[in-house]
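Run: sequence + (2S)-amino(hydroxy)ethanoic acid -> complex structure.
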Amino acid sequence: MDTGEFRRLWNELAPIGRADTGGYLRFSWSEADLDCRLWFRAQAEQRGLRFEADRNGNLFAWWDPVKEAVQDPDRPHRGGAVLTGSHFDSVPHGGAYDGPLGIVSAFLAVDRLQSDGAQPHRAIGIAAFTEEEGGRFGVPCLGSRLMTGVVDPDKARALTDSGGTTLAEAMRAAGADPDLLGRDPQRLERIGAFVELHIEQGRALDGSESPVAVASAIWPHGRWRVTFTGEADHAGTTRLPDRHDPMLTFAFAVLAARKEARLAGGVATVGRVEAEPNATNAIAGRVTAWLDARAPDEAVLGEILSGFESKVKERAGRDGTMVEIFPESETPIVEFDGSLRDRIAALLGGAPVLPTGAGHDAGVLSAHVPTAMLFVRNPTGVSHAPGESASDEDCAAGVVALAAVLRELAC
Ligand code: HGY
Ligand code: MN
Ligand code: MN
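>> structure
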């Protein structure tokens, strides 16, 4: 495939939501997100694909078969569509590729099949799932979790962003109806398989002969909001022994998370913190931090969390502060469909098979439909930061691989 073809479509989308840092601000239901949605609709229409916005803020572009395939007798409840796609939203100042690469590649893969005169006998759909990163409302994969009924719609409507705007308010301001949020079994039943192409988030493919890998599993992971409550006071006049400084307990907690993860064999990160009153010359009254922890299996993840909790609570006792831990999202281990994975890896000439520590809508959907992922080489390994990258050659190879998979499954 001509890399120019990839670059042309990529360059259309790339300016939307790009910040001065070179990273992206594409929070769900923001102006930038709405521009991405308009772009998606225009791409669908240009290709004669049927555009559809579901009740949960997810978008679809459907290439319907001229003649429906005979239903699979083993799975008569399935409409059998082959869905691909990913998400537009980014973490604050995240990279360009995480999410959008899967959507741009999907449109280009359809172009390839259409120009080859392919005739799908199962519908091919392109999806753009909403709020995959949880960058605005805190719950990752919100669109796919709502669709599959993992998240309660009342709880979702009440989620707030950092400015206090609820999801319901943000949706209404963007012209969407939050009252319709919730499980969507009819739409889900039409999907026979989901294949998400994604930028690699690591360096396993650097130096490999293959620019594309197939996913095996997603590590179990979760996010916890941790509040450290003490007593706000004067930074100059309060004697050290009289202080109840939650910043000390917080600082200990950051190090404890790292240590527990290292000892158990997982990862743990505190990447976000808010202090109140956040004044240079006042001892903080409260610190809120968010813990992200992931591990190869659930026992290890549990070990990290229980170690973290007991060490931090013990420290809080010594600091005269109080710690509370609230789960915000928890995702069990995902093992992708073995036969789909093996079929795709063989189709791609023995592509490497890799696990990932990153969460994806594909992980959420995998509890309902056979699901697979393709990873496109990222030589820096960087993700969720502006340094995330892939060469145009590798992105074009990703499109060719995705087109081959769609042809194999749907044509
Ligand atoms: O945070 C994650 O793992 C994903 O990129 N949403
Ligand atoms: Mn991400
Ligand atoms: Mn992603």
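>> summary
The longest strand covers residues 267-276. The chain has a mean pLDDT of 96.
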